[in-house]
Amino acid sequence: MAGMRKFEAMVAKALGPGWVFEEQSFEIKTKVRGQVCLECGCPMYRIAVYTPDFTDGNSTVIEVKGGSFKPVDQARYKRFVKQHPELKYVICFRSNIKLRNLKDRPTVKQWGEMNNIPVVVGIEELKEFIACTT
Asked: Is 1 a domain residue?
């Protein structure tokens, strides 16, 4: 479990065999504001590589968040889910923190509901999510 943070190691132990840590990467396209192709006028995109914390090698992806949930992360996960609808995606938080960057200060679970992204809090909820999706 080298290279893992404490909460990631706890999740890895709970998941057991069949899950790999930071081995599978995905592309995420982001439109570059105000830039278009000089030849055809189409919008320009930047390609980023996203490596989630855990994958099962098939269709389930787990991102583990132990503490903060920055706006840049929120935007990345929304784009990822939108661009990869074939995958089952869940974000697992250690606790149901409130987001300071949004006006109404939703919790991470409320943010997930607002953005149609499954969010679980704690390892037991993660186990339940996985049991229901496999």
From this structure: no
